[in-house]
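Issue 218. Parser rejects a valid record. Input:
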Amino acid sequence: MSLGQQLAPHLPFLRRYGRALTGSQAEGDRYVRATLEAIVAAPEEFPREVDPRLGLYRTFQAIWGSSQIDEHDDGGAGGSDQEAIARARLARIAPLSRQALLLTAMEGFTVEDTAYLVDVETAEVEALVADALAEIEQQTRARVLVIEDEPIIAMDLETIVRDLGHEVTGVAVTRDEAVALAMEDRPGLVLADIQLADDSSGIDAVKDILAQFNVPVIFITAFPERLLTGERPEPTFLITKPFQRSTVKAAISQALFFDQTTVPAAA
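Output the parser choked on:
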């Protein structure tokens, strides 16, 4: 099997990581593209001593850490206000901590693998993750709309959201209900399942909401690779079912981290 064939199944998940790390579909995909270009240009330098997924992320981390592919080149992202806000927040939080949080909580790497990816001692990883969570939770709070038709999952999400110090504005189980709740009480964050109770789509519900006002969205799906092809406008933040509490926590923190409407939490 060629290296390309070995790496292909992992690309959607690398896109998820890149987008979560940068807060932008365009920026995240640009880092993934730079990673693939580096591998094609020098395949002999690809880490062969580890499994392909770990080697792929290691190459991405090298691109991110060494050059960040020129922060002054917007790569089509347009130098948005969102990026300016992110830079201001990044000045107050260690990027390495955020990487460790996403790699462990969202991407599911072990502490040992994460240490390899961010090039620190294994003992440092848990401290980095704790630092990231502490800093992010102090910075942000939001009012959250949950769009989820499975009662147990909806209750679980509500509990996680409230335990993080955020408020739940409502729980919707259909597209129409989601739009109505959003219009009635505008949320600062939306958690949206893909398939809803009446066979309507959470994606369509979100499109309807975003047509009225801007709000960060985290999609929840059992099939993330179907939404991360790189071929069309796609979610920036994505949670895979079944999810862990830590995954939801990391995704919420990252989505709010890049949101210009987020209210700083009280000290």
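Fixed in the parser; the record now loads. The domain at 140-257 is CATH 3.40.50.2300 (Rossmann fold).
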